[in-house]
């Protein structure tokens, strides 16, 4: 595929900091600043560049005001932690799409010719915060935050636009209703599909040391007296429904994470990386109110903007997609033509979307098991795509060469992004 | 390889023990306070903890006229400081270290002109108790 940017852009470095919770022994006594510094230096070391080589930083974080001591713009501090004080930096906040949008902006900075090497990095701690005037390592559970705060409801004006109660989960429920309506699939089959998806993603995550949850559901089911993992997944006691269609295990896991990627102009990429990855094109769409099925509609918008000329979804070796709740993965895979329309559910039921299947989706484990850290998540997902494309994903490496990869992300129920990457060597 | 280790916690824990820590670059020798895990001069991540000692040189005293109604640096008593004694702002440096801004005690309307005329002068580290249950670092001019 041919690059659609005015100046070709390549990825030359990524971080590999795992998804964890702050109570993990590895993260004891740390704050988001140490994680930020670690991810940024990992990416710079991986790219073989020094802080002085970086021309610009694009940083993504969604909930800094809430979680980082009521700080609105941490940009100067963040630069100092990574030795980049004095360089230009921009902060992107577009909910959980922030990381993807930041990546696109980093690519744009290179494509414009203004910058040669750009660091895109994100940080987020969804489950903890430090209060105003307290050092960042003095973290407390987010439930103790003074004002009632629920990320799902902080994303919209719920008085005028979207009434309070239409949560993200309810919106993803619409994808199930749409699917049943369009393809005559029963509610039981949807439930089985979503459960199979959770099992598949956990199987992937169990092989990925960077994932937050790594115990297979088959093992957990056995422990609870279930020989059949699907019986366990259907049980209200162990996997309750949180909406009509979505069960607990079919909903996003929140954890602290930082991530970073280095992009540069393709003509100098070979100087730094043996396996540079080319950024072919990207597109995004935002939409809050086009009910019903606004998640579905954003997928359609992004697909139409992205798929032109020589881009054929049948050539994709891998799809990585946000999966806040189960319906999102199925809808996205079909809309973007990665799985056949109306038949994608069968691929999930048959395990063909696993890392070792013929149509792998989210071999890293997806947001349901890999984990999800709001504004950093897009960068973490891109990093997993990079590792797969380089053949460096470890035990969750897909069983074929990943030359062409679609990374599709969504944030806040209002922004969807599609990014196409390719290795030319 | 960047070493993932607590920076903030180590710093604040040391303050509780009456010690001010900075970091020293093992490659170029640059010392940074407050501590940062990346050398601000050469970009190295090979930095080690460094005891900054208990006094610093004050290079500038920023002492505004009490008639100014703006961002007052005279008689400022931060709402989060347990001790409400007035302080002003200074620019200073530890020996061999970078310039910093900090709270400075011991300057008042009666002695400010004299103290400014004596710059640079040395000042002792003053541990400021914060109401959030931790300490911050300020300085106090010797009489
Ligand atoms: Zn140095």
TrEMBL record, chain B:
Domain annotation ChsH2 rubredoxin-like zinc ribbon: ranges: 13-48
Protein name: ChsH2 rubredoxin-like zinc ribbon domain-containing protein
Stretches that traverse the bilayer: none
Superkingdom of source: Bacteria
Gene3D superfamilies, alphabetized: 6.10.30.10
Record-linked Pfam families: zf-ChsH2
UniProt cross-references to InterPro entries, sorted A to Z: ChsH2_Znr (IPR022002), NA-bd_OB-fold (IPR012340)
């Amino acid at each position: 595929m041919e690059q659609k940017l005015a100046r070709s852009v390549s990825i030359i470095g990524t971080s590999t900091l795992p998804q964890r919770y702050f109570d993990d022994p590895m993260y004891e006594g740390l704050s988001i600043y140490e994680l930020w510094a670690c991810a940024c230096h990992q990416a710079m070391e991986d790219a073989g560049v020094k802080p002085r080589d970086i021309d610009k930083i694009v940083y993504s974080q969604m909930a800094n005001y809430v979680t980082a001591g009521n700080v609105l713009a941490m940009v100067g501090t963040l630069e100092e932690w990574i030795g980049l004080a004095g360089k230009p930096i921009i902060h992107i906040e577009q909910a959980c799409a922030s990381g993807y949008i930041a990546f696109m902006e980093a690519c744009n900075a290179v494509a414009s010719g203004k910058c040669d090497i750009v660091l895109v990095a994100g940080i987020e701690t969804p489950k903890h915060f430090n209060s105003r005037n307290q050092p960042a390592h003095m973290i407390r559970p987010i439930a103790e935050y003074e004002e009632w705060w629920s990320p799902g409801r902080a994303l919209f004006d719920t008085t005028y636009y979207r009434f309070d109660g239409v949560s993200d989960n309810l919106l993803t429920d619409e994808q199930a209703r749409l699917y049943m309506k369009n393809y005559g699939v029963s509610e039981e089959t949807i439930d089985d599909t979503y459960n199979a998806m959770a099992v598949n993603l956990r199987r992937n995550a169990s092989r990925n040391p960077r994932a937050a949850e790594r115990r297979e559901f088959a093992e957990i089911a056995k422990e609870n007296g279930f020989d059949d993992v699907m019986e366990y997944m259907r049980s209200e006691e162990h996997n309750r429904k949180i909406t009509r269609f979505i069960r607990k295990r079919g909903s996003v896991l929140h954890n602290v994470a930082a991530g970073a990627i280095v992009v540069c102009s393709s003509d100098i990429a070979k100087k730094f990386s043996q396996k540079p990855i080319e950024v072919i094109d990207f597109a995004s769409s935002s939409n809050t109110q086009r009910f019903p099925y606004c998640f579905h509609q954003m997928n359609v918008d992004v697909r139409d903007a992205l798929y032109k000329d020589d881009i054929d979804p049948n050539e994709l070796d891998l799809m990585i997609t946000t999966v806040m709740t189960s319906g999102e993965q199925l809808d996205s895979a079909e809309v973007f033509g990665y799985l056949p329309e109306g038949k994608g559910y069968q691929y999930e039921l048959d395990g063909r979307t696993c890392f070792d299947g013929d149509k792998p989706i989210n071999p890293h484990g997806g947001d349901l098991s890999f984990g999800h850290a709001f504004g950093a998540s897009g960068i973490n997902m891109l990093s997993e795509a990079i590792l797969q494309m380089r053949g460096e994903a470890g035990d969750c490496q897909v069983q074929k060469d990943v030359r062409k990869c679609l990374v599709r992300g969504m944030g806040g129920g209002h922004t969807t992004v599609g990014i196409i990457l390719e290795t030319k060597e | 390889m960047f070493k993932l280790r607590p920076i903030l916690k180590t710093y604040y824990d040391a303050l509780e023990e009456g010690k001010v820590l900075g970091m020293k670059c093992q490659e170029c020798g640059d010392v940074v306070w407050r501590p940062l895990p990346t050398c601000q001069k050469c970009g190295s991540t090979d930095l080690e903890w460094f005891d900054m000692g208990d006094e610093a040189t004050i290079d500038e005293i920023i002492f505004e006229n009490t008639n100014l109604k703006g961002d007052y640096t005279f008689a400022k008593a931060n709402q989060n400081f347990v001790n409400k004694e007035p302080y002003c702002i200074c620019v200073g440096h530890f020996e061999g270290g970078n310039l910093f801004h900090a709270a400075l005690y011991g300057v008042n309307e009666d002695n400010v002109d004299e103290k400014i005329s004596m710059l640079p002068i040395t000042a002792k580290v003053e541990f400021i108790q914060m109401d959030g249950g931790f300490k911050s670092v300020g300085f106090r001019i010797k009489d």
